[in-house]
Fold this sequence. Notes:
This protein is an alpha+beta fold. It is built from seven helices and ten strands.
Amino acid sequence: MPIDPSVAIGADLGERSFAWSASDVLLYHLGIGAGSRAGDNVSPTALAYTYDGPGLQVLPSFGVVAPTFHETEPPPLDLPGCDIDLAQVVHGSQSVTVTGPLRASGAATIRTTITDVWDKGRAAVIWQEGVATSDATGEELWRVRSSIFVKGEGGWGGERGSSTAVEIPDRAPDLSTSYDVTPQQALLYRLCGDRNPLHADPDFATGAGFPAPILHGLCTWGIVLREITDGMLDGDAGRVAGFGARFAGVVFPGETLQVSAWHTGAGIVASVTVGDDGRPALADCVLTPA
């Protein structure tokens, strides 16, 4: 069997030490659209993401890309008990939680484990969790949890896992905003550590079944977190304790994201669609305020 849950679940994927600088933070924020609107060059809200002055803040989503920020090759899929190919894999979901505001520079070590493997019948879902700790103090800085959807590898009779959807309130949203994905958005975001040619090479994208290169799912994810932070939390990244969502559809550079968000007892929930047809982009989208 290509996936052996008895080997995979609980497997230690090792640790990686890394460092980041204010320049990395600035590039990441530019990659998720900060500073791209008219007037952002003089906007205090935008400059808090794009200017390396004393007011520079860091969106928690940066923690997801920080460990591999300077990678120039696609990530390997050498997972214990999992004989799978990159072509089978789709990023299923992503979340991050932080213990406090992230610093604009630092050094840390992240240790990652496989926590679950679900059997969805025609596919498998593999969950990983990484914990980043400060090299200076040893304290936990952030925790990331992600799933990958592996096509054609289910059906062994394993645990299906949970599938509870986030409930969207039946009332007008507290925030309704849109973001125009720039034509060069994917080309810029790929400099944040994901050089998959699917996001840059038209011929590769066509071979994968798409009419053009697509936007990184984590770019969409970061854009939405920034839009909600700006629209619901006064642009204060320090008020974000966590953010998570499930990837529900493909976004192309040049399209428009529509974001609706609501304050609820469970945090801030959001509905995210894209394009003229309003197809889903992210689902089960929840921001946990600090």
